[in-house]
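Figure 2 data, in text form.
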Amino acid sequence: MTIPVLSVAAARRIALAAQGFGSPHPAIVHQGHLRRTLGRIQLFQIDSVNVLSRAHYLPAFSRLGAYPRTLLDRAAWGRRSERRLFEYWAHEASLLPLEIHPLLRWRMARADRGEAGWTGMRVFAGERRAEAEALLGRIRDDGPASASDFEDGRSRPGWWEWGDSKRMLEWLFWAGHVTTNTRRNSFERIYDLPERVLPAEILGLPTPSDADAFRELVLRSAQAMGIGTATDLRDYFRLGVVDARVAIERLVDEGALLPVRVEGWKQPAYLDPAARRPRRIDAQALLAPFDPLIWERDRTERLFGFRYRIEIYVPAEKRIHGYYVLPFLLGDRIVARVDLKADRANGRLLVQSRHYEPGAPPETGDRLDEELSRIAGWLGLQSVNRA
């Protein structure tokens, strides 16, 4: 069989179209727009950094423009009848459509057996299980609770400073015994029983076999990316190497994935047969560090020739581009990057640095300024302090 060969430019446009870039922003964004965006990209990654905005809000802004963040809040943490999303570990901690819940129960089952989750919490699947089950019983009897409710504030945000109750709660979360009821104050997770939070019709869905779940997750990854290597497809939901390989082989045999070669890529690639193949993409967007278009840094470099590393944990004197840097997408290329901070007390968006990529078109500065004004307005900031 002859393997089709695609240029990097064609692969890049396929990837952008699959991720929902290039379409005009709706004049008024409603829940249907948000639902369709999530249907394309499958998840919003959660991160605690709030120097600009919580990470899970930004991908929808990049694709839809200014939208009411309350739409996402209600879908994620609203009344049970409003819930459209749930929290769980997918790429990382993520907000996911409810229908994905059965596809991740294999991960919950492995965590329950002590085969998944961080090493420091696996003890609660075995020798200290009774302690975790006692804590679960307290939630069952007394209602939703946070780690600080059990530890008098002894747990701190850093993973290395978690107390025992926080580790027990996180194991219970990984194992599917609790889920997130809501978030409060500084984004603190409030845990509750799934049957009190998630719709009964979702919890009542049958659990697929592990093999069928891996097949569906890889297929969703391919649809979200449009085109990708086996590594790319595996990374989207953080699947095991063997599990992903078997699923890819099965999808290729079924004709649900097409093997292709992309010029300059060392690894074989796979194309979603239904992916759009536009000749042109007219996009303009700031991209969050945890946007699914760019979160796999090697893929970002292969698609865009753009080397990107987040420097939050790099000492200030060693940073190259800044603390919280957002790449700027223009057309089908990443042409600049800006280090942004929301100065909420003074109503300003601080542009702490900006860097243009080689070959950035002459209009890059003006178009970037447009996008900076747009994101400032969306965040409720009155001015942009431009670098």
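Caption note: The two ends are 54 Å apart (CA to CA).
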